[in-house]
Amino acid sequence: MNTDPDEKLDALFRAARQENPQNASSDFPPLGFQTRLLAGIRAEGQQNVSAGFFAWRLAPVFAAIAIAAGAWNFSQTFNSQAGEPALPFDDSVILEYLTGK
Amino acid sequence: MPDVCELSDETLVRQTLAGNDPAFAELARRHHAKIAGMATRFSTNPQQADDLIQDIFIRAWRKLRQFRAEMPFEHWLSRLAIRQCYDLLRKRRRQREDVMEPEHWERMRELAAHPNDSSAAREWLHIAMRQLHPEERMVITLLELEDKSVRETSALTGWSEGNVKVRAFRARQKLKIILQKLDQ
Description:
The structure holds 2 protein chains of 2 kinds.
Chain A: H1 5-18, H2 21-24, H3 33-83, H4 91-99
Chain B: H1 9-17, H2 21-42, H3 46-62, H4 73-94, H5 102-111, H6 118-128, H7 134-145, H8 150-157, H9 161-183
């Protein structure tokens, strides 16, 4: 009896190759394969469409939030400018800041 | 208008991209046997093989825009199928579905008594390959069971030829150790 593991392994591979599942199966796919595949593709397509559709449906909400945030920011800036007196900001201020006097 | 059966793969791809799904069903029918053969090698049961075939074709449909006519559609599809099979092997490994149980050793001992019986050999290898890493299993299946060359395996997997050889060597070593254990 053969005890060389290399030869044994090769014999196993040789034997397993003979039972080729590709040859064993018919040239034609099983009944209903194409129908099942097309159904899968449609389901996949609908998933993509619904994700896109959902994003579009939410677009006005995001736009409204952006506009509201912009308006609030503008009103805050306007109020602070109107309420505070203008600061004297000339070279002497910068000089004092830099020299620490 | 010509029948879909008479159109080339590339024409069917173009028609699918234009929204004609039955054109893709024809592509799937043409390449089903090859993909089914490949999927069966990496599946543990017929149901898993069916799901794998379905997943491969749906993935192909999703990625069809990436297909470039510079390589044959069959080759592009085979590469994609190999990637899907590899993902399945990794998932099974993560979920510890491919762990060797004591009853597997018993079964292998029984099967090893009939090394020339093709279905016994196939089952033996199927169980023994549970011990291999997904990369090793992928390489040894393509080289030894699908009868691909190192170059073809490298092209299909995207791994270098050196890498393929190293993984094949490691896989053979592990399988030989199993054989030796069964002899003891």
